[in-house]
């Protein structure tokens, strides 16, 4: 996305006639990068497969999945599922060097595949892996890349129109890649709907070999510390998140937040000033400069709902806001609002959930 | 390693900038310190810029300063709950080559002014709060301490342009604590509207033409205070301010006052559909001449709001700030040139220059006004109401004969004050204070 | 202008910082859907401060110097000066009309070119960038620079465990999706720092004075070493912004739970009723998961 002020028309460019250079005319088909990390496919890949299917159908072309990984049962399983979720073709590169994600071998494999098979559109998840890889691949290919798209479409001229938030979510912009192929975009998890898999589907396999030795690869993985084994917050993937803001006034009151999160088996988080005050660690921050969350239920207590907070929580299925100020911004995007003191409502809610769900809180 | 400067200027508001500019331009080694993220980041003003004071410092400022609109029309409104009685003065003469008054946004203006100061050679450090003055054994001010590590910074003179709160001067015992009846608290909002809408609503032909509305009456809910509404390029500044002592007494929350003002039937249509972005509160020193503290001492001098240099009657502040800053700067430059130490005695130069300028002359002229207004609140309540009632009677055609109307009007004015004697006393007091 | 002097020993670190509008203060006009820029202040991209702090910690530990590099309009000088006040040693601004309208590909080209010039005498050991910017928000410029300069790319780094200057080895913790990778790599490398990994220091009086006095290095495209200006700015950007618009406000208002005259327990129940009415599946899933 161009860095110029978005209210200025990109001089002379937007109206410029698209003329695809000869060498790109043969680029065809829609690709989705299937993100396989440590044997598990990131769900965003299937969400993208659903979206990619729609684009491919509109363009009348094939949908392909790209699976990179070590030779393993999990990789094979990922390939199978790629068809279930809508792919016609699978491009596969199996190599022990691809066991853990590292930028070098992944960039090599993916750029080689693109140069050989020439897709017109390539989509990746906007995860730490996807963004790391997409940035390298796009630069190596010298093509355009639209990050964090929230909407994808093809226009009348069959080019990809990727819409994404900008300026911290205050604006949206639609971006095209003129004159270059493939047109690349990343999409954040949980933005696109998860398609229903069709277990009867299968398709073609195209094999590719990684022309790289482990010895050529500079970066080595010494260790992998899975999140489950640490205390680190896993807000981004939590189904239920309870968060508190400055409205809770003193750090001790965050006990009310953690208790409710506990009762619901969810995660807890906070707004930025809470982190700045040192009341909670940085990995608990939700918002533009913290975690983006997409839970099924988000309960925000004593949070005013500044735009930087809003962009991090807007993907939640249901936002419940508790705030004493009826004019608080959070009520502009919450689905449900309670104008009341969070210090009373949080414990009441925890008690009520316990009653309803028939379970005593775990000791905490 | 601690540094030594010819002068340290505390504050990068209009007064501090004027002083620092004047001294740096003359070749002095000047350090300016402001606590804001950038100059002007927290500074608040209506804001009207009076060109003359700035012109004497930067003659060609109009060519590059961020000015919003020049004022072609002044409205003065007496407000009661539902009406306003107004006088409007608009003149094409204000569309002159070098207009006399402009609306500005302080955040931008201060930033620009500060750039000029730095271009003139002064050093500026921001996000740094001066916490105290450093004195030598003889009690002479020789430098400042800040909230950053790295020890004091020294200078031959510290110029205090720190604004109305003036905590540095106060903590150092250079000036007394502010008195509640000498400071007004002003709250202000900026409301954004498309440029064309601003022009349409105020009937402005020229792209940069602007309107100023000054308001007294019900806007202050019986307290000593005024309201204002200024047109910027694509926004409207609206605010109201009253004496702290009155706020304390009435317990009216300031924002409530502003909310009432904004929803007044004469004001609401001007703001309709706008987006409020900025809400700020700030103090204004309104004690006038009698509240001016001691202004100079060995190694220090006070300028701007810190010295209570505001003409509340005419809503002038920044021009007094710039003028006092300039005069202090010029005095220090002269003393330096003459190789004289910057002592209380030698700073008589600054005090004399002040006494000779419009700053002291105006403040002296109005020295009775602050006390008068404080003791005669009826000026803010009774008269606007009476005026409104009288005019309404006059304008309504309802079968009553004109003579009866006239006497009813007179009665309403009299009733406002209880007796004709009261009205006459008010007029007399006002005239005497004005002289 | 000449390149700033490079250290003879210790680390030569460059931190890319961007000046961005403070998004807290950006207004979109409700009617015209355009950005109202009046008075929007600019700040250093907040993510870049984590990178700057980490770079300065390495410098303090191993010696060397930290240069901040920014591509932007002349007023981006403010951001660089501010970085000097925080403790950076040198500042370089690359500014040229022809950089205007750069997308991430063109930005990484310009920055990579300037980095090459900066490393001409003494190679750059580590390039730091923030995780992403708050205006562009792409997280692509860092990887873009790394690809162009063939630096080892270490993104989303939360901590630097060890650095061995002699061997030119670095061990970092990198945030991956489901955990943390401990990676060993080699210098020169490019690191994008994760937010919250450290806290930016407050410069001393001496830092502030040095920053106020500093002569910044300001380079045009040519001075930065750009040979082909077609690779810069709009012309060097494959992506084009076709349309900018404000997100549509949510149609429905928040459903408000009435609290007047209710006991806390009743309020709790009322909220839960509403939640489960809106998300019927949630109740079943929750009971299943918790019991
Ligand atoms: C570049 C940048 C990036 C930022 N990134 C983030 C980010 O990632 N995440 C983030 O959260 N913020 C971020 N911010 C900060 C953001 O602008 C706001 O300042 C912040 O979100 C406000 O936090 P808050 O709502 O907790 O506090 P406040 O704005 O102080 O709001 C407190 C709220 O609590 C309510 N309240 C008070 N008492 C009670 C009570 N007893 N019961 C219930 N309610 C009560 C009040 O009515 C008020 O609405 C960022 C800012 C900038 C400039
Ligand atoms: C609502 C309102 C409307 C007004 N309208 C007008 C108008 O229309 N026209 C007009 O001419 N005047 C107006 N004024 C008055 C005018 O704003 C002031 O007179 C003027 O700003 C005074 O300038 P100054 O430099 O003395 O102080 P300030 O502008 O207050 O500047 C003081 C500076 O010092 C800094 N500072 C303070 N303490 C420290 C410290 N310890 N260390 C470091 N830095 C410090 C502050 O950050 C600030 O930048 C208005 C005032 C208000 C509040
Ligand atoms: N114009 C620029 N000048 C310097 N650094 C930049 C610039 N644009 C981006 N960066 C760096 O690249 C990182 C990622 O930016 P982005 O890809 O825009 O999200 C930022 O955190 C900066 O460190």
Structure in words:
The complex is a heterotrimer of chains A (364), B (435) and C (291). With 364 residues, chain A is α/β, with parallel strands linked by helices. Chain A folds into two domains: 2-6 and 21-216, HUPs (Rossmann fold, 3-Layer(aba) Sandwich); 235-356, Rossmann fold (3-Layer(aba) Sandwich). Chain A has helices at residues 43-59, 73-84, 103-117, 128-141, 254-263, 272-276, 307-313, 342-357, and strands at residues 30-34, 36-37, 40-41, 63-69, 89-94, 121-125, 145-149, 151-154, 160-166, 171-177, 183-187, 204-208, 220-226, 240-244, 267-270, 297-301, 319-322, 336-338. A seven-stranded parallel β-sheet of chain A has the order 7-11-6-1-4-5-12, with helices on both faces. A five-stranded parallel β-sheet of chain A has the order 15-14-16-17-18. In chain A, helix 7 links the parallel strand 16 and strand 17 (319-322). In chain A, helix 5 (254-263) runs parallel beside helix 8. Chain A is elongated and about 65 Å long. Mean pLDDT of chain A is 89; it is low at 1-15 and 360-364. Chain B is of the alpha/beta class and 435 residues long. Chain B has three domains: 4-68 and 99-178 and 290-367, FAD/NAD(P)-binding domain (3-Layer(bba) Sandwich), CATH 3.50.50; 181-285, 2-Layer Sandwich (D-Amino Acid Oxidase, Chain A, domain 2); 376-434, no CATH class. Helix content of chain B is 36%, strand content 25%. Chain B is built from 15 helices and 17 strands. Chain B has helices spanning 14-25, 51-55, 106-119, 167-171, 195-201, 244-250, 254-263, 268-271, 318-337, 348-356, 358-365, 369-375, 378-395, 402-417, 420-434; strands spanning 4-10, 30-33, 48-50, 69-79, 84-90, 101-103, 123-125, 130-135, 141-146, 153-160, 183-192, 209-217, 225-231, 235-243, 275-285, 296-297, 300-302. In chain B, strands 3, 4, 5, 6, 11, 12, 13, 14 and 15 form a nine-stranded mixed β-sheet that branches. In chain B, strands 1, 2, 7, 8, 9, 10, 16 and 17 form an eight-stranded mixed β-sheet that branches. In chain B, strand 12 (209-217) and strand 13 form a beta hairpin. In chain B, helix 1 runs parallel beside helix 3 (106-119) and helix 9 (318-337) crosses helix 10 (348-356). Chain C is α/β, with parallel strands linked by helices and 291 residues long. Chain C is 31% helix and 27% strand. Chain C has helices at 46-62, 77-86, 104-118, 141-149, 205-213, 221-224, 264-278, 280-290; strands spanning 11-16, 19-21, 27-28, 35-36, 42-44, 64-71, 90-94, 126-130, 152-164, 169-175, 179-186, 189-193, 217-219, 239-245, 255-257. Chain C has a nine-stranded mixed β-sheet, with helices on both faces. In chain C, a hairpin with a 6-residue loop joins strand 3 (27-28) and strand 4. Chain C is globular. Classes of the chains: A alpha/beta (364), B alpha/beta (435), C alpha/beta (291). Strand 18 of chain A pairs parallel with strand 15 (255-257) of chain C, so a sheet runs across the interface. Bound molecules: flavin-adenine dinucleotide (FAD) (2 copies) and adenosine monophosphate. One flavin-adenine dinucleotide sits between chains A (245-247, 271-273, 285-290, 302-304, 306, 308-309, 312, 322-325, 328, 341-343) and C (22-24, 46, 134). Chain A: Keywords: Electron transport, FAD, Flavoprotein, Transport. Chain A: Its cofactor is FAD.
């Amino acid at each position: 996305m161009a860095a110029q002020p978005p209210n200025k028309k990109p001089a002379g460019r937007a109206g410029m006639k698209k003329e695809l250079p000869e060498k790109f005319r043969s680029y065809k088909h829609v690709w989705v990068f299937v993100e396989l990390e440590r044997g598990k496919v990131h769900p965003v890949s299937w969400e993208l497969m659903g979206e990619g299917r729609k684009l491919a159908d509109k363009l009348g072309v094939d949908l392909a999945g790209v699976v990179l990984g070590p030779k393993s049962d999990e990789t094979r399983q990922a390939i199978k599922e790629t068809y279930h979720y809508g792919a016609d073709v699978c491009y596969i590169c199996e190599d022990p060097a691809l066991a853990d994600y590292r930028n070098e071998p992944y960039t090599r494999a993916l750029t080689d595949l693109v140069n050989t098979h020439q897709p017109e559109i390539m989509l990746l998840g906007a995860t730490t892996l996807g963004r790391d890889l997409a940035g390298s691949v796009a630069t190596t290919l010298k093509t355009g890349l639209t990050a964090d798209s929230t909407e994808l479409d093809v226009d009348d001229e069959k080019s990809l129109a990727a819409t994404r938030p900008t300026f911290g979510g205050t604006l949206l912009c639609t971006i095209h890649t003129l004159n270059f192929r493939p047109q690349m975009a990343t999409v954040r998890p949980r933005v696109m709907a998860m398609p229903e898999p069709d277990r009867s589907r299968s398709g073609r396999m195209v094999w590719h070999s990684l022309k790289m030795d482990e010895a050529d690869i500079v970066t080595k993985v010494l260790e992998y510390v899975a999140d489950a084994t640490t205390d680190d917050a896993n807000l981004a993937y939590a189904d239920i998140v309870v968060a508190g803001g400055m409205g809770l006034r003193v750090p001790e009151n965050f006990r009310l937040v953690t208790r409710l999160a506990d009762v619901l088996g969810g995660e807890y988080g906070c707004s930025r000033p809470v982190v700045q005050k040192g009341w909670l660690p940085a990995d608990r921050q939700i918002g533009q400069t913290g975690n983006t969350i997409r839970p099924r239920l988000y309960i925000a207590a004593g949070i005013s709902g500044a735009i930087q907070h809003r962009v991090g929580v807007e993907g939640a299925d249901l936002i419940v806001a508790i705030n004493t100020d009826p004019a608080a911004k959070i009520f502009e995007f919450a689905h449900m609002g309670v104008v009341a003191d969070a210090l009373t409502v949080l414990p009441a809610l925890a008690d009520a959930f316990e009653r309803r769900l028939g379970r005593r809180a775990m000791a905490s | 390693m601690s540094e030594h400067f010819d002068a340290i200027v505390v504050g990068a508001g209009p007064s501090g900038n004027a002083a620092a500019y004047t001294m740096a331009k003359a070749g002095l080694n000047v350090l300016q310190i402001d606590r804001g993220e950038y100059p002007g980041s927290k500074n608040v003003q209506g804001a009207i810029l009076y060109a003359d004071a700035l012109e004497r410092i930067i003659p060609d400022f109009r060519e590059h300063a961020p000015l919003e609109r020049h004022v072609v029309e002044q409205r003065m409104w007496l407000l009661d709950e539902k009406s306003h009685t107004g006088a409007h003065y608009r003149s094409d003469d204000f569309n002159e080559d070098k207009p006399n008054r402009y609306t500005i946004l302080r955040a931008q203006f201060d930033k620009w002014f500060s750039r000029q100061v730095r271009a003139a050679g002064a050093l500026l450090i921001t996000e740094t709060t001066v916490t105290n003055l450093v004195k030598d054994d003889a009690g002479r001010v020789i430098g400042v301490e800040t909230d950053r590590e790295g020890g004091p910074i020294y200078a031959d003179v510290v110029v205090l342009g720190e604004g109305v709160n003036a905590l540095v001067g106060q903590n150092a015992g250079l000036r007394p604590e502010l008195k509640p009846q000498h400071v007004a608290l002003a709250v202000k909002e900026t409301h954004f509207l498309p440029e064309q809408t601003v022009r349409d609503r105020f009937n402005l032909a020229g792209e940069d033409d602007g309107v100023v509305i000054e308001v007294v009456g019900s806007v202050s809910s019986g307290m000593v205070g005024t309201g204002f509404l200024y047109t910027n390029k694509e926004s409207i500044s609206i605010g109201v301010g009253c004496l702290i002592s009155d706020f304390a007494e009435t317990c009216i929350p300031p924002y409530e006052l502003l909310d009432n003002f904004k929803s007044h039937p004469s004001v609401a249509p001007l703001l309709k559909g706008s987006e409020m972005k900025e809400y700020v509160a700030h103090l204004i020193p309104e004690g006038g001449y009698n509240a001016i503290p001691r202004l100079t001492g060995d190694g220090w001098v006070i300028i701007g709001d810190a010295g209570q240099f505001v003409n509340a009657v005419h809503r002038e502040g920044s021009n007094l700030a710039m003028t006092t800053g300039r005069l202090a700067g010029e005095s220090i430059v002269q003393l330096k040139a003459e190789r004289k130490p910057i002592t209380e005695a030698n700073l008589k130069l600054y005090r004399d220059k002040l006494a000779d300028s419009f700053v002291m002359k105006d403040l002296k002229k109005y020295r009775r006004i602050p006390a008068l207004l404080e003791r005669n609140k009826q000026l803010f309540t009774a008269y606007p109401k009476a005026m409104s009632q009288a005019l309404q009677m006059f304008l309504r055609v309802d079968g009553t004969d004109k003579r009866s109307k006239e006497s009813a009007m007179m009665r309403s004015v009299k009733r406002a004050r209880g007796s004709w004697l009261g009205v006459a006393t008010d007029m007399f007091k006002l005239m005497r204070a004005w002289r | 202008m000449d390149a700033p002097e490079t250290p003879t020993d210790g680390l030569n670190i460059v931190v890319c910082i961007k000046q961005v509008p403070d998004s807290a203060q950006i207004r979109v006009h409700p009617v015209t859907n355009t950005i109202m820029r009046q008075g929007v202040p600019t700040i250093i991209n907040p993510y870049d401060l984590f990178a700057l702090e980490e770079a300065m910690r390495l410098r303090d530990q191993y010696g060397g110097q930290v240069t901040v590099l920014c591509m932007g309009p002349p007023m981006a000088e403010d951001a660089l000066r501010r970085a000097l006040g925080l403790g950076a040693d040198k500042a370089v601004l690359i500014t040229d009309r022809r950089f205007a309208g750069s997308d991430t590909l063109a930005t990484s080209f310009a920055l990579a070119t300037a980095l090459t010039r900066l490393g001409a005498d003494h190679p750059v050991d580590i390039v730091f960038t923030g995780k992403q910017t708050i205006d562009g928000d792409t997280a692509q410029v860092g990887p873009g620079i790394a690809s162009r300069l063939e630096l080892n790319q270490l993104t989303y780094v939360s901590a630097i465990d060890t650095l061995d200057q002699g061997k030119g080895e670095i061990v970092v913790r990198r945030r991956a999706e489901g955990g943390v990778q401990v990676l060993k790599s080699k210098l020169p490398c490019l690191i994008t720092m994760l937010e919250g990994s450290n806290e930016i220091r407050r410069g001393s009086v001496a830092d502030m004075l040095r920053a106020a006095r500093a002569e910044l290095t300001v380079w045009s495209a040519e001075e930065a070493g750009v040979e082909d200006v077609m690779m810069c700015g709009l012309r060097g950007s494959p992506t084009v912004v076709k349309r900018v618009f404000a997100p549509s406000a949510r149609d429905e208002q928040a459903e408000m739970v009435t609290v007047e005259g209710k006991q806390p327990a009743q309020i709790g129940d009322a909220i839960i009723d509403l939640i489960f009415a809106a998300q019927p599946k949630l109740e079943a899933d929750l009971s299943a998961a918790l019991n």
